[in-house]
């Protein structure tokens, strides 16, 4: 049976609120040489979707400018970085053995072909993504997970959240037996950090609040600290010898309050700014204790390969909070923005 000529998609034609997500009937993309066409089984949502839609990333010369992840967007744009599905067609120079295989897509656009390349673009922002029935991707970024026990929904949660989490853990050089503090632990990246740090053999302290505390504990945290109470005192009580690594997606005031909690040679890894991007701290806490403040944007190809290996073994169980049909992408994004869930939200094209 041949492929359809058109497909359903949800796309944005301008920056704005959830209302700018519009249904569209568009041509099924044709895989170019070196690319494959993936029939989307599931696509997970990320904060990146919200920030890209809103144009909230700013630019180096103008923090308030409307911008996608790495600059101005080309509209219309189909959102969605996190895709699992099956290979429906291959372009020239691509192994036909991939046809029909269950895959997960690395959504990063890298600055080079090397194993430690840096992501400088993202599917759903700098190229069309998975809020659609089909999406194209470079063949080298498509990973065969046919034998993974994880469901399609679980696999879709991996690329951005778990890729970002593993990038943070690798850049922070987290080792077995160390004590780690995870901020924003109920979100997609937060749950991924808890699960991956636990799988590495670390002692995991996580920050959450309210009804989500128990779910974060179930995800694998050894202790959960209540965000509604003063954090530093809770950390000192739970880890009197200090924290080896902080895995932080919140930033803001947490950085200035938390730096003194690091042990000698501690590492503070930042991959988000949910608490605010303006940060002030006592720089003496950094240099007098050989601490390191590390920025981490997503993952490298090497990190993603490690993540896929873990997924093939089902070394962790991604948490799916809710699912929506593709046409309800705006509703799904509204639920994501409320942050009253634990885990990941997934669309079904």
Structural summary, described in words:
- By secondary structure, this protein is an alpha/beta fold.
- It has 2 domains: 6-161 and 299-348, Quinone Oxidoreductase, Chain A, domain 1; 173-295, 3-Layer(aba) Sandwich (Rossmann fold), CATH 3.40.50.
- The chain has 10 helices and 18 strands.
- The chain has helices at 47-54, 152-156, 158-171, 188-199, 213-219, 231-238, 253-258, 284-287, 301-312, 329-338, and strands at residues 6-12, 21-27, 35-44, 77-78, 82-90, 102-105, 108-110, 119-122, 134-138, 142-144, 179-182, 203-208, 223-226, 243-248, 262-270, 292-295, 320-325, 344-348.
- The strands form 4 sheets. Strands 3, 5, 6, 9, 10, 17 and 18 form a 7-stranded mixed beta sheet that branches. It has a 6-stranded parallel beta sheet with strand order 13-12-11-14-15-16, sandwiched between helices.
- Helix 5 (213-219) links the parallel strand 12 (203-208) and strand 13.
- Helix 3 (158-171) crosses helix 4 and helix 3 (158-171) crosses helix 9.
- The protein is globular and about 65 Å long.
- The protein starts with 5 loop residues before the first strand and ends with a strand.
- The mean pLDDT is 96.
């Amino acid at each position: 049976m041949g492929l359809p000529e058109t497909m359903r998609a949800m796309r944005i034609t301008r920056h704005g609120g959830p209302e700018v997500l519009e249904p569209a009937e568009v041509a099924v993309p044709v895989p170019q040489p070196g690319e494959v066409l993936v029939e989307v089984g599931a696509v997970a949502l990320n904060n990146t979707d919200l920030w890209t839609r809103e144009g909230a990333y700013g630019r180096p010369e103008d923090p308030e400018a409307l911008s996608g992840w790495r600059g101005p967007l080309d509209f219309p744009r189909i959102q969605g970085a996190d895709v699992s599905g099956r290979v429906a067609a291959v372009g020239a120079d691509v192994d036909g053995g991939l046809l029909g295989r269950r895959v997960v897509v690395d959504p990063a656009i890298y600055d080079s072909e090397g194993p430690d390349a840096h992501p400088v673009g993202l599917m759903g922002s700098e190229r069309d993504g998975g809020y659609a029935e089909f999406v194209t991707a470079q063949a080298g970024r498509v990973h065969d997970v046919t034998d993974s026990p994880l469901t399609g929904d679980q696999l879709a949660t991996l690329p951005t959240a778990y890729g970002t989490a593993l990038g943070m853990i690798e850049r922070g050089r987290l080792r077995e037996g160390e004590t780690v503090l995870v901020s924003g632990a109920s979100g997609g990246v937060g749950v991924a950090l808890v699960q991956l740090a636990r799988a590495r053999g670390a002692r995991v302290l996580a920050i959450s609040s309210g009804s989500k505390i128990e779910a974060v504990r179930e995800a694998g945290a050894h202790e959960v600290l209540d965000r509604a109470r003063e954090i530093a005192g809770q950390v000192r009580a739970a880890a009197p010898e200090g924290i080896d690594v902080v895995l932080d997606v919140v930033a803001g005031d947490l950085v200035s309050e938390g730096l003194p909690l690091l042990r000698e040679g501690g590492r503070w890894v930042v991959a988000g700014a949910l608490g605010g991007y303006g940060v002030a701290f006592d720089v003496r806490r950094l240099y007098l204790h050989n601490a390191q403040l590390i920025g981490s944007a997503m993952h490298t190809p090497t990190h993603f390969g490690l993540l896929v290996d873990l997924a093939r073994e089902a070394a962790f169980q991604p948490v799916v909070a809710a699912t929506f049909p593709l046409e309800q992408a705006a509703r799904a994004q509204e639920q994501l923005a409320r942050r009253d869930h634990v885990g990941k939200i997934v669309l079904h094209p």
